Structure prediction request, 229 residues.
Amino acid sequence: MILVDLKGDAVAEALGPSARALQADLTEPDQVRGLGASVEERFTMPDIVVCAAGVTGAKGHPLELTDSDWNEAWQTDFMSVVRTLRVFVPTMEKRGWGRVVIVSSENAAQPYGDEAVYNVAKAGLLNFAKGLSRVAAGKGVLVNCVSPAFIETPMTDGMMDKKAEGEGVSRDQAVNEFLDEERPYLELKRRGKPEEVAAAIAFLCSEKASFVVGANYRVDGGSVASMSL
Prediction:
């Protein structure tokens, strides 16, 4: 298992000796190209790629966000995926087998008014994945998405800690208030766990998903109110 992150080895060490870490900024085209060369030189090119890099980005009225606000989210959430798959998918296609899972978000299907930059980038990923899936499937590479909602991660920890500090309450109280006020359709009334998202990703990376192409699996506790069509 090869992990790519801005911070390098910390997560790999937690996962044990089978995990290896490489450091790269996926918003930088040269670093992504260098990543491919480093993987090929030190390991072997992968058969499975999971794209999970992302930031919520700037929040506010959609028309008051600056060009740089939009660009930050677009480069991190969308273009990082495009650049990464440019490097790794061609090898999968030559071998005739591969799996790609792109982590999108509930925001792609149910956008929130103050998170426009994130909404747009994540919705773009669903469209990109569907298009790529149509040209890659014939070469044995299956491309799909997983869309989580409000998962217990350092990103949502930070959101809830900021809310808790501003309101003078505990993190747990902030989470409960957020669920009541901002996520009324999240029927399980809690944050999801990383392993619950990982289970969907693992399925899509397996032979059990050999007839799943261009799909979007929501792991959202019911947070998206519409039917999944």
